[in-house]
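Sharing a chain and its predicted structure for anyone who wants a worked example. Both blocks are below, sequence first, C-alpha cells second.
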Amino acid sequence: MSDSHLILGVDIGGTSIKAAIVDTRKGELTTAVARSKTPQPATPRAVVTAIGELRKRLRWTGAVGVGFPGLIKNGVVRRAPNLDPSWVRHEIVEHMRRTLGVSFVAVGNDADAAGLAEARFGAGRGVRGTVVLVTLGTGIGSAVLHNGSLLPDTELGHLEVGGQDAEKFASTVARERHKHSWETWGRNVDRYLATLEYMLAPDLFIIGGGVSAEPEKFFPHLASVECKIVPATMGNDAGIVGAALFAVRGAKALARKNRSAPE
C-alpha cells in the first residue's frame, strides 16, 4: 500500500453497497457516493463483482477498506447473517484482492467501521476512556473503543437482558413491529444501555442508526444511564469512512510485522 491518505471505503449492507474515496486524515469523502443494490442472492462472487463495478466507476486502483455485515477472522468469514450462507468460511480478503486487482485490501465488521469513524472524527472525537457505539436499526450493532483503540467483533446487540435478546425489544424494528410509543421503546433502550453500562462502565455512549436523527423523541427516556449519551454525527458516511480506516490500520500492522521479521 502506498503512503497516500486517500482510500476507497466500501460499506456492504443487506440492501445496498456504497463506496467513495475517503481522505483518512480528515474523515471526509472526496467523491460522491457510488451505490449499487446488493445482489440477490448475495453470494461472494456477486458481491465482489458489484464492488469491482463501483471501483471502476470511481476510477480507483489504490487500497480498499471494506465494512462487512458479519464476523471476519484472519481474512475468513465466520458468519454473515444478512447475506448468503455461502459466505461462511470464505476467504474474503484474498478473493477481493485478487478480483479487484488493487494494492491492498482490509475488511472488518461494519459496526466497528462506524465506531472507528465516530470515535476519530464524529461524536467521540477527543474523548478519552471507553466509548461504546450502539446502532439501532434492523438489529443492534456495537463497537467498543478505549482511548481510540478498537475491541473488534463485539456482538452486544445479542446480549440477553431479562431473559430476552436485546435486539428483540430495543432495536428500531422491535419498536415498529410492536407499535411501541417512543416512551415505551425509549425505556426499553434505557434498560439495555443500563445493562451495558454496568458491564463496560463506558465514558460515553454514541447512538447511531436512523433514529439518531431524532434523539429528542427517546433520549428523555434514557433515565437510568449515568454516563453521557450523544447521537452519532457522521450519518451514512460513518460506515464508508470507517471502512477506509480499516485499510490504514491494516497497512500499519503489516508494516510493523515486516519490520520485526528476521532478515
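Comments welcome. The longest strand covers residues 16-23.
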